[in-house]
Amino acid sequence: MLVYGDVRRQAHPDDEVARLLDAVETARGLGPGLARHAALVAALIVAGELVQGVADAAFRETGRDAHEGATARLTGLLVRLAGAVWGSWRGGFAVGAVADRAEIDRACAGLGPAPLEIRLPEGFAFYAVYPEAYAASAAASGGGAGTTVIGLRSIGTSLGAMVAAGLGSADLVTVRPTGHPFRRELRLSGGLRDLFGPGGGVAVADEGPGLSGSSFGAVLRELEDRGIVAGRVALFPSHAGAPGHAASEETRRLFGQAQRHVLTFDDLVLRAERPEHRLEAWLAPLVGPLSAPLDEVSGGAWRARSFVDRAAWPPANPMQERRKFLARTAGGTWLAKFVGLGAEGERKVARAQGLHAAGFSPEVAGFCHGFLVERWIEGATPLARGRVDPLRLVERVGDYLGFRAAAFACEPGRGASLDALWEMARHNAAEALGDAAVRAIEGYRDALPRLAAGLRPVETDNRLHPWEWLVRPDGSILKTDAVDHHAAHDLVGCQDIAWDLAGAAIELGLEGSAGRRLRAVVARRTGHEPDPDLIAWLEIAYAAFQLGAATMAGHSAEPEERARLAVEARRYRRHLAARLRVASPS
Is the pLDDT at 69 greater than 70, yes or no? Predict the structure, then answer.
């Protein structure tokens, strides 16, 4: 099934350099404390994205990874910024040296005008991968000066810099494993390959390993070919697990022989020895002292607080859920949810504040180094279809979607095209429903150019399921989990608001006369009438996508969760079959 996708954007080098200068100046202008430290991490992430974009541009031009010119200069700057982050963490967020304007200008000199393709570092945006953990792990690893650190682009660029900072006098190079996702390989210049000799120490940094571990495997194979056996290589992954079910026997052998050094978010923050490193200390300035230990509600655990009957729990994909904690204080309970480090997290918090100001979502206390902090609504219950007046629900959902469409415009290119959605729907429908469904979807192909001509991309919600709405004791309805699904680790991204109208039809039953009324409410809010033909097509694409997501999540779920996800997959299969007018397997 097709579900996942990378978030990429095109950027002019001058704009990225300006972003870096702004990020560094922001950090320089702050006094000691967590806010300054978080600003340093934000600058590190911006610099890492610039290095990644420049290195990938050079790779596309030559077909080989190299460590020279602008790539080498910028990599050196990145390691110095990583040193500032590591110094801040070790020093209790005290003020330390930061790169100055002249140093940044020298590193960025000679960048051409060609656009860069910047890939979102997913671990920083979604999975609470904290770069400080890599420096701390490296410092405790026993490695040291003379080590060559290999960062695997994309996120391994910044993570490798943190490993280099933790090791001390270490050199950083970055590489881009390419090829089939389960059979990655390296393409290196002769000069870069010569850096890996049998006499030096080598460390490799990336998040993962994932389903195949093939990126780590590609590096370990290359090093073995250069006379560096896996047992002499220090790996710095984001978790302690082995590569997944798609790993080759060779990758499993090499990965198992290598040294592994892991420090997780839990080790770094939740079990931190120093008080200033603990999440409780980060939250207290926003909500006051905590009256009880943090209560983790990640991985679907939030359902125990929202549903009395376990049998009524909705499905969850624990592997994809953000880290979430309840913080209880004298002033009430707050939800701290990871939404991203640096600018990505700040952007999502601004969305949450806008939604609260408009009356659609809970109160926002603030943002602290990756975590959005908003009020937990005591006494509220998840929306149950049939228990809220349908007309009132239509008005509320329509007002909400109309607000998003008017307030959260999105530049083109931050979401899948209609062609990409068509390819996904065709593939997933073939997997689930066979040739008849493929023929039905192929009948929509000629209509796509006309539908695409009227698209107005916005930061869609993408998550309109009943349990994502709360009904308060006074009967008012709030939308939760509303800030980041348009920028998630999937292929959908930002879409026309018609995508959410399709979601409302399938998730909330707002179709037929209710669907027409919903479109009218959105039109009233936006001054633009949604295209019913576009909505009809996107209902097909939406059902195919959600079918794929539920199916894929079920593959790695525990038996109880797998059963819930199987029910959900069957529901989407029925929706898809009905809209394509083909038979659905029982």
Answer: yes
- Residue 313 token pair: 């729990």
**Peptide bond before residue 158 is cis, with ω within 30 degrees of 0:** no
Lookup: tokens for 300: 């679907």
Alpha carbon distance 30, 169 (integer Å): 28
- Round to whole Å and give the CA distance between 359 and 400: 9
Q: Name the packing angle between helices 34-62 and 156-167 (round to 10°).
A: 120
Q: Hey, what are 59's tokens?
A: 């790779």
CB atoms within 10 A of CB 114: 10
Contact between 459 and 415 (Cβ < 8 Å): no
pLDDT > 70 fraction of the chain, expressed in percent and rounded: 99
Spatial distance between the Cα atoms of 271 and 337, rounded to a whole number of angstroms: 18
User: What's the average model confidence in pLDDT over 55-60?
Assistant: 96
For CA atoms 85, 89, 93, 97, the dihedral sign is negative
Non-local (6+) Cβ contacts of 20 within 8 A are 43, 46, 47, 50, 104, 108
How large is the average pLDDT for residues 380-405? 92
Cis peptide before 209 (omega within 30 of 0): yes
Encoded amino acid at 182, one letter: F
pLDDT classification of 139: cutoffs 50, 70, 90: very high
Q: For residue 31, what are the CA distances in angstroms to 27, 89, 331, 510, 516?
A: 8, 14, 28, 51, 54
Residue 531 CB: number of other CB atoms within 10 A? 19
Residue 445 CA to residue 440 CA, distance in Å, equals 10
501: tokens are: 């109208």
Taking CA atoms, 230 is separated from 148, 216, 223, in Å, by 15, 11, 8
Residue with tokens 């980060």: 282
- List phi, psi (to 5°) of 117: -100, 110
In eight-state DSSP terms, residue 493 is B
CA-based nearest residue to 336, from 311, 304, 302: 302
Provide mean pLDDT across the span 538-553. 97
- Could you count the other beta carbons within 10 Å of the beta carbon of residue 565? 22
Q: For residue 467, give the DSSP letter.
A: G
H or E element at residue 327: strand 324-329
CB-CB contact of 506 with 575 (8 Å): yes
Q: Residue 63: count other Cβ atoms within 10 Å of its Cβ.
A: 9
- Give the ranges where 31-68 is alpha helix by DSSP (H): 34-62
Give the pLDDT band of residue 586 (cuts 50, 70, 90).
low
In degrees, rounded to 5, the angle at the alpha carbon of residue 296 between the alpha carbons of residues 293 and 300 is 160
Dihedral, CA atoms, 502, 503, 506, 509, nearest 10 degrees?
A: -90
